[in-house]
């Protein structure tokens, strides 16, 4: 450890002064620093200062922490805490900013973006380069370069002219002249007097540039009021026709503030409406049941093999439209249900040569689960999925259309945004639904966009899609988070406040709110899902075992039907309308479909009598008997195809029908007709003519036609695309910190000075085998510690500090100070050895 009384001279020294808890917080906040594990703290500091890592860290700061970093980027390097506070509060001060600054600065320090004590705050060099003002990338503060930076290319004579025009004494060199001018611009009293002497037109020019951008255009012969500003150095030319407002001048005009608006506290998520929790839960449960029914209907529609897979992957526009019509929803909603079933592992491509989408074996297992558990599986898949159905129909980077189930729909930020939106809803009183504007404002504060603000940024669109999809899925009801949705997040219900929040403590950032939870571990999520299923189960309607038959050949299902009843009824009748009650219509075609599936007329009569709460209407009985009487009277087999019938008059009727011309029928015998069409076409043609033929096998038996379910081989649900390296768990953090500390000890332990050349920093010691053995044996006798270089079986090199205990058989047994345990090393893998300096 470094001496805490001595200020650190580098980020590595600042990290060396941290304890293990602080290092763990850094690695948890920036998991990219641990992939792979650094060899020592110097390497950790180097990695923390790389451009890619710093950009990623800056993108994950909240707005006030980012504003604090931006203020440090325009402050002196290093800057005292007072200067930073003045840049954020201005001359008038701001108690809210003063109270929030320690937290923001603590976040920057924790993430190794800022180091040093309060008297010497330093922004990491890469972060300063990214945030400091430059013509190529203007600062979000709107400030320009300092006087020293703006006058860097100016001639000494011109600088002296400016100093003289400003009423300052001439100097012998440009450095002191610029320093004198800087002192003038940072002196509030003298600067106010200087500006008071300017004409109104000159002050108007400065007011247009004060909040940025600080650059302006002038002609070769500027007007008098512009010439006055140039003469005083209040505007400095940077290129022909371009001038800039120096940073010190802008800060004076702003009253010392680096930002026009400082946001130390997150905007509150405002309730737009409040409903009774029971109403919210009932509404959400009803939508949850609709979600289950919709996914079941989708997979039933694709049961015998769904749409073909496009060559580039995904569904065609035509297939998506057909699916939307089948589900009776809009195309974007159909895309959501298809993607949800795919994310849950319920459908996939079959992998055949003629590749098609179909249900997976997991779908059959899913159907056997209780409804509440089936819903939690869908909800879990939605929460963690990185595929975003809202992108369907858009364009990718190569201007190709994004299709449902196709490539290019993954967005790694989607799970985090979904969880964040639902967590914000969980922070409201039960039954309260927020306004979308306040949710979006909160998300933009927590993850502000660097650069120009765009209303259509991805996180905002993801948030809006989350609100819509949560309502479709039944996680929310009437815009408010339901009880089972809250349980799914693992969040407890918040206490309803007796009055509106009054102090800053009521508007704490999300990680300070007691109702906000981080994404759950797999074990925690399983527990939360079970709790959610228990809350949802009593709210779902119980499946019915009956229907209401009506005289107009319809049946009304007043609620969800038992699966066995629904499956038979789907074959026996056609669905006419859906909603709270489903209406089925019996037709000759639907009855024939049931007979083709192997049912007899008596079976159908018995089925209807058993499941009807009303008497079976006479028209329905007549319909079944009439279709059954004619069913199978004609027999179609394979000759190329033939028709046989005991009633030759019926065959004569078929031959005389003009609609049979396309079948090219001819009589082979009084009871047999031959056709040029195949059996399937012949069956369809005769049915279109109003007959009810039955197919028969080569043995002359009636073929029972049942739909054969098509299943893909076993498929796992698609893995979400990670949003960077995963956050390390406690075990990995502990092991990584131990390894970093060990490597740092080996790298920083002083070596005894010898006549041999010392290895450079980071290099392994190099000695001959004889020298290594002799030094090891001597250390066993004296009990001294040694510094060694070691290459393991995988070829990874490391430095270690060991105290040899025994040397024999080509191995050294030693207490390894870096690993804090006794280990045995092969001598042939030791690259070299060096003695440590005495304390």
TrEMBL record:
Q: What is this protein called?
A: Helicase C-terminal domain-containing protein
Q: Which residues form the Helicase XPB/Ssl2 N-terminal domain?
A: 547-669
Entries under InterPro entries matching the protein: WYL_dom, XPB/Ssl2_N
Which residue intervals make up region (Disordered)?
487-513, 745-769
Residue runs in coiled coils: none
Q: Which GO terms describe its molecular function?
A: helicase activity
Q: Where is the WYL domain?
A: 771-833
Q: Which organism is it from?
A: Streptomyces pseudovenezuelae
Any matching Pfam family: Helicase_C_3
Keyword annotations:
ATP-binding, Helicase, Hydrolase, Nucleotide-binding
- Indicate, by first and last residue, each region the UniProt record lists as having compositional bias (Basic and acidic residues): 496-509
Keyword check for NADP: no
